[in-house]
Specification:
single chain; 229 residues; alpha/beta; 8-stranded mixed sheet; two-stranded antiparallel ribbon; 30% helix
Length: 229
């Protein structure tokens, strides 16, 4: 497998771990606010060879203790389990970022002991999911992944990137009702940039973010705004 990007050190992407982050190409969604737009269609030949990655990880044993795997959508890649096995064999814990569209692959990876932490994006309330994902969405698949994480015992967090043009107060009430009892949920403010898929989107104000947080708390007590931790 080719790796499209490597952040050699992160203290933020994997909670409680000194980690690196690897970026895989390809995604089944086209979220207009995506800040990794170049990864959506990147060709494999543009990336780092898997052997290069594993050589890097061998050199960092004892310095790093975790690997965060993001995209794109990592679970799109059929080669992912084999790569995760090699990373785990080097003694690293693995955090997986996913949009939740592939519950069976998520379950297989978890049951095989290939992931230790999952961060699942919650794009919006169910009725507004397709608009926010940029493509038609089988919401039952998303709900299956969320339910699995909440019941599996694996460490997880849910997170929503909040965009003024895409999210409203009612959406967060619906999300709270849907994910009632979740262990941890993050709101993260949209940030514009040169690699965002669609131009013209804007972040919500700090006051709006606090309002959304309060709307969620009756259902999910452990709600945080990214950066407040």
């Amino acid at each position: 497998m080719q790796i499209q990007g490597l952040q050699k050190l992160t203290l933020l992407d994997y909670p409680g771990r000194t980690a690196c982050t690897i970026f895989l190409s390809g995604c089944n969604f086209r979220c207009p606010f995506c800040h990794n737009a170049p990864l959506l269609t990147a060709a494999d030949e543009d990336g780092m060879d898997e052997d290069e990655l594993l050589a890097f990880l061998k050199k960092r044993q004892g310095l790093l203790d975790g690997v965060a795997v993001t995209g794109g959508e990592p679970l799109l890649r059929p080669e992912l389990p084999a790569l995760l096995e090699k990373i785990k064999a080097l003694g690293y814990t693995v955090k997986l970022d996913t949009n939740g569209a592939f519950p069976e692959r998520l379950k297989e990876a978890a049951h095989a002991g290939l992931v230790d932490f999952v961060a699942m994006d919650i794009k919006n309330s169910p009725k507004n999911y397709a608009k926010t994902a940029g493509v038609p969405v089988d919401i039952a698949k998303i709900e299956e992944s969320a339910k699995f994480l909440m019941e599996s015992g694996i460490k997880y967090e849910f997170r929503t990137t909040v965009v003024k043009e895409l999210h409203a107060a009612e959406d967060f009430i619906r999300i709270g009702q849907w994910l009632r009892g979740a262990k941890r949920y993050f709101l993260q403010a949209f940030r514009d940039g040169d690699t965002v898929l669609k131009s013209g989107l804007t972040p919500c104000t700090d006051a709006e973010m606090q309002t959304f947080k309060q709307l969620l708390k009756p259902y999910i007590p452990n709600v945080l705004i990214r950066g407040e931790e």
